Each structure stands twice: as C-alpha cells, then as structure tokens.
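Extended Data, panel c. Modelled sequence:
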Amino acid sequence: MRTLAHDRYHGARTLTSVPDNTKIWAPPENTVSYFRHPDTGERIELQRNNMGLRMKYDVSASSLEATRNIAFFGASFTENVRLPVQHTFPELFKFLVNIGDDKFEVLNFGVGAYGVDQSYLRYKELGTDIRKELDFVVVVVSAGDLWNPAKNKIAALD
C-alpha cells in the first residue's frame, strides 16, 4: 500500500477537485487531467464523467436500470488517482464480478481526503433516481478516515 506525504497528497486533492460548500471539495464533472505514476513516471489520464466519477462514459438512472449496480464510496484508496484506472480496485472488482453471466456496473464514488462524513454527504446528494438503482453500497473506510466525523462534530468516537 502506498501512502503519500501530506504536501503531495494535498496537491493531488487540489488538482483534482473543485470547492464545494457542503463537503469542502468535490470532483469536477466532465473533465480530463493528467498525473505521473509515482514509480514509473508514466503519464496517467484522469477522466471524470457527468457525475464526477472516474469513468470514460456517462451514467444516468436509465443506463443503470439494465444492470445490477455496486457503488463504492471512500477516500483516496478508493479513488486512487495516481494509478491507471484499470488498476484501481473498483475496476479490478468490476472485471472479476462480471466473469459470470450476471451484468454488474461498478461505480467509483471515491474522493481523495474524504472521510465517512463526506462520503455519506456525497451519497445523499445523489438524486433518488440514481440511489434507487444502487443494489449494493460499499463504504471503504481506513483507520485514517475515522477521525473526520469526530473532528467535524458529526459523531463522537468513544
């Protein structure tokens, strides 16, 4: 697992986000930006669709009706902007879950530096037409994500 020093991580967040009054920052919609792989220096494209998801195609409630849908929410581990999209764990999961006959769509709602509080707000902001099409919602939480709700006084850690 790779961890980034705070200054590099802050740079990644500010380069890939826009201000948001509720969640502090949010992924921009319909954008393309580029990064360098931290080990190889390879140029990596970060393309976001109409929902700000790291996907090359747009998503709508009607497009989700034909599939079973799994949504991943989380922070930088879920979003993983410094790897080619095909190497992020939601994309690997999508490949594995679609080996059988079922058709699954896997949506990566990860946003770097989010805690569970911002992930929950991101989920709540989705229209009910999208939320009702999500068959499975997975919130990926690492130990570093737990302090955010307490710091923001949304929950208490006891």
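Confidence is low (pLDDT under 50) at residues 1-12. This feature is highlighted in the accompanying rendering.
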